[in-house]
TrEMBL record:
This is Maleylacetate reductase. It comes from Novosphingobium resinovorum. Residues 165-345 form the Fe-containing alcohol dehydrogenase-like C-terminal domain. Keywords: NAD, Oxidoreductase, Plasmid. The gene is scaC. The lineage of its organism: Bacteria, Pseudomonadati, Pseudomonadota, Alphaproteobacteria, Sphingomonadales. The keyword NAD applies.
Length: 351
């Protein structure tokens, strides 16, 4: 028997093609009349095109969202939000833009509508990571959970192939760790296995044909499930390592997840057998860790920390940082084996 607690956050999820054209209707249904639209500089045009449909409901926009949600950017956006007297926040983009929307919601209690355009999954979580003075801190707070999520497959077609691959592997990592989470439950396990299956089958098709709408749809569907897993279950070694590598060594978020995942799975392999069996099943491979590495290689994804620009001399410090604060993991976190894992991931040694 697996005793469990199942909690779910109330959010409205709309999935399909062209769903971002329903933004106005969604705002009206919730009685919001003054939206602040957010994006990165790269997605300014795309977000303004979508925002046009809001007509008089568009109060203003801000297009300087940045990776890791720097507090100084949030404070600039907060000024704009107050100036235009917004009564809701509309984030159009990936985890960086959604992070800014959450940071604003935390400070204002305003509701958020999110239109995700990557597979990172932040839209389905009550988690916010913020950076101040070079330090990234993460909190879980129901105040930052978006109210409505509009998944519009058409908007994901422009996500470059390489970013699609690493973003998809980032998503898979959420599902993989949810399968062995201490606070996991049967519903999340079903979602996680289905999520890995959907993404593992979609990503090779996206690499072959980036505008394959069915493949894009399967990937976004998988990303939704992965985000739900991340929002519901606690994460372990893999996410901790990636947080350390991103936060302290400035490594890029999604590619770091892509490189580390097979090694984190290999580390936990003997301590989480049912989870590994589910991952292997979803990948259609005999072994979870080896299967994940094979998928990465097939997708032409980065397979070593060296490729991401990490210096070998930083590995000792990375192992120190990653083992500093105790956290739960199916296999105990020990300095020697973690240093070994990082060394192998740095070199890209087969798992
Ligand atoms: P991102 O949001 O930084 O996007 C990367 C780049 O791709 C940006 O320039 C963006 O404008 C562009 N882009 C996004 N979608 C596009 C599209 N469809 N077409 C063309 N260009 C597009 O990348 P990300 O990986 O989605 O997000 C990473 C950030 O999200 C990190 O800061 C990470 O910590 C955070 N994150 C948070 C959570 C959470 O639950 N809080 C979950 C996952 C990731």
């Amino acid at each position: 028997m697996q005793p469990f607690v199942y909690e779910t956050a109330p959010a409205r999820v709309v999935f399909g093609r062209g769903t971002s054209q329903n933004l106005r209707r969604e705002l009206e249904a919730l009685n919001f009349g003054r939206a602040l639209v957010l994006s990165t500089p790269d997605q300014k045009e795309q977000s303004l095109r979508i925002a046009q449909g809001l007509g008089s409901q568009l109060a203003g926009s801000f297009h300087a969202a940045a990776m890791h949600t720097p507090v100084e950017v949030t404070l600039q956006a907060l000024e704009v939000l107050k100036d235009v007297q917004a009564d809701c926040i509309v984030a159009i983009g990936g985890g960086s833009t959604i992070g800014l929307g959450k940071a604003l919601a935390l400070r204002t209690d305003l509701p958020q509508i999110v239109v995700p355009t990557t597979y990172a999954g932040s839209e389905m979580t009550p988690i916010l990571g913020e950076t101040e003075n070079g330090l990234k801190t993460t909190q879980r707070n129901p105040k930052v959970q978006p109210r409505v999520v509009l998944y519009d497959v058409d908007l994901t077609v422009t996500l470059p192939v390489q970013a699609s691959v690493t973003s998809g592997m980032n998503a898979i990592a959420h599902a993989a760790e949810a399968l062995y989470a201490r606070d996991g439950n049967p519903v999340i396990s079903l979602m996680a296995e289905e999520a890995i299956r959907a993404l593992a089958h979609a990503l090779p098709r996206i690499v072959a044909t980036p505008d394959d709408i069915e493949a894009r749809s399967d990937a976004l569907y998988g990303a939704w499930l992965c985000g739900t897993c991340l929002g519901s279950a606690g994460m372990a070694l893999h996410h901790k390592l990636c947080h350390t590598l991103g936060g302290s060594f400035d490594l890029p978020h999604a590619p770091t997840h892509t490189v580390i995942l097979p090694y984190a799975l290999a580390y936990n392999s003997d301590a989480a057998r049912p989870a590994m069996a589910a991952i292997a099943r979803a990948l259609g491979m005999a072994d979870a860790a080896m299967g994940m590495r094979a998928l990465s290689m097939r997708l032409g994804a980065p397979t070593s920390l060296r490729e991401l620009g990490m210096a070998e001399a930083d590995l000792d410090r990375a192992a120190d940082l990653a083992t500093q604060n105790a956290y739960w993991n199916p296999r105990p976190i020990e300095h020697g084996p973690i240093r070994n894992l990082l060394g192998r991931a740095w070199a890209g040694t087969p798992v």
